[in-house]
Write a structure and sequence with these properties.
The chain has 179 residues and is an alpha/beta fold. Helices cover 35% and strands 12% of the residues. It contains five helices and six strands; from the N terminus they run H-E-H-E-E-E-H-E-H-H-E. Helix 3 packs parallel to helix 5.
């Protein structure tokens, strides 16, 4: 279904835009899928949404979407916590996992935090690396590393729920140059 080559002058999107484009193209029947085929209208659920921009962009293309799970009303100043989106809360985790198994969203976009993998965090005393994914549990960023480990564990369990429910998801890392 896909053209053999790109049109001249069209740049390939990168980052979250590439994810949006590839998810939208896939939802329209383009691309290769392994396993099952999504049935019905694609309904997006964004998890670990910083500002909910991906959901807004998806809706701007005409796509259906649930409200994004976004911890803060104003994420840039981390103001006004949305308790229904607090993914460290076991009650919220349970609700989200139930929605993954039986809710209307069938296309999920997961971007768990990985900031302690960033090279600058190693300079700041972080201990997570590709050789020690969970970190040592010590140092000035120990609490942040534990929190991020808990959120990544939740994302992994959520991904397994989505696979079991026959739903699709993208798991994206925000950091391209991790240590």
């Amino acid at each position: 279904n896909r053209p053999a080559k790109r049109r001249a002058g069209i740049k390939r999107p990168t980052g979250w835009m590439a994810s949006l484009v590839s998810m939208f193209a896939w939802s329209q029947g383009y691309g290769h899928k392994v396993g099952h085929v999504l049935t019905g209208t694609p309904v997006l659920q964004q998890v670990f949404a910083l500002t909910g921009g991906f959901t807004r962009a998806w809706r701007a293309t005409g796509g259906e979407a649930e409200n994004p799970l976004q911890l803060f009303e104003d994420p840039w100043v981390q103001h006004s916590v949305r308790l229904d989106s607090d993914l460290l809360n076991p009650v919220v985790q349970h609700r989200v996992r139930e929605e993954a198994r039986s809710g209307p969203a069938n296309l999920w976009y997961l971007v768990p935090p990985v900031t302690t993998f960033a090279p600058v965090q190693r300079v700041n005393g972080g201990t997570r690396s590709w050789d020690n994914l969970r970190g040592t549990g010590a140092g000035p960023l120990a609490a942040t590393e534990r929190t991020e480990n808990d959120l990544v564990d939740f994302a992994a369990r959520l991904g397994l729920d989505l696979i079991a429910a026959g739903k699709e998801f993208v798991l994206e890392s925000r950091w391209a140059n991790q240590t």
